[in-house]
Amino acid sequence: MHNEIISEKYKDLINIAKSNNSSFLKNQPFPHISFENFFNLGFINSILSDFPNLEDKSNTKEFDTKRDQKKFATDVSFAFPKKINNFLSYLNSYQFLSFLQKLTGIKETLIPDPYYFGGGLHEIKRGGFLKIHADFNYHPLLKLDRRINVLIYLNKDWKENYGGHLELWDRNMKTCVKKISPYFNKIVIFNTNDFSYHGHPDALNCPDNVTRKSIALYYYSNGRP
User: Fold this and answer.
1) Mean pLDDT across the chain
2) Is 68 helix (H, G, I), strand (E, B) or coil?
3) Max alpha carbon distance in the chain (Å)?
4) C-alpha atoms less than 13 angstroms from C-alpha of 50 in its C-beta half-sphere
5) DSSP codes of every residue in 182-218
6) What does DSSP assign to residue 66?
7) Is residue 126 a contact partner of residue 204, using CB atoms and an 8 Å limit?
8) Residue 212 above 90 pLDDT?
9) Whole-angstrom Cα distance, residue 116 to residue 218?
10) Per the confidence metrics, is the pTM higher than 0.85?
11) Which of 69, 139, 150, 221 has CA 20 to 30 A from 208's CA?
12) Mind listing the pLDDT tens digit for each residue in 176-211?
């Protein structure tokens, strides 16, 4: 499955992790990294093809709060399409967890979330935004500490003027230090703590028939420094 999913450039995940560990830790405003064209093109195209219209599903949730606008996401009872379900299983596998462990340098054993609590599939429509925030850091079901966010973007032909860039802000939430475009087949990995402020605060300017699609996975540990 690994050879089917990961692109040729990144097939040797452990060496990729080791060679990028220093950059991950040094990147500001908090440890993070992004890789373009990370997944096999044919495979990630098939994932996009299977991406459901979340607005039409009964077991998804719509956010319409001061923080999230026009955002749809799967909930813990969502039945993922088979190919997406297999993809998520790989991202929760020992092989991928080992990559994350070595990339981030986290000493505590990383644990995936089989419930995809807060994660799973996300979709945001025109006019939607996500205010700058720090994520919840404790899993209410597993009673574990959240350590890592992994975001996978599925937005083909995304134009700069659509907006929707992931913004990483300083610990005082005063300044945007980094902007990451949500382009197709890009993966973003970053530490989560009380000061990992991020979001996309400006309303999406995409056409009505275009949405910002992503897959979010969160990883935990039993205790943290």
Assistant:
1) 93
2) strand
3) 45
4) 17
5) --TTEEEEEE-STT--EEE-SPP---TT--EEEEEEE
6) S
7) yes
8) yes
9) 7
10) yes
11) 150
12) 999 999 999 999 999 999 999 999 999 999 999 999
- CA angle (93 as vertex; 114, 181 as ends), nearest 5: 85
Dihedral, CA of residue 35, residue 41, residue 46 and residue 47, to nearest 10: 0
Mean pLDDT, residues 150-165 taken together: 97
Note the helical H segments in the chain. Answer: 2-5, 13-26, 41-50, 82-91, 94-104
Rg (CA), the chain: 16
Retrieve residue 104's tokens: 């981030």
Looking at the DSSP assignment, which residues form a beta bridge with residue 83?
none
Report d(CA 184, CA 132) in Å as an integer. 22
Cis peptide before 201 (omega within 30 of 0): no
Rounded Cα–Cα distance for residues 113 and 220 (Å): 7
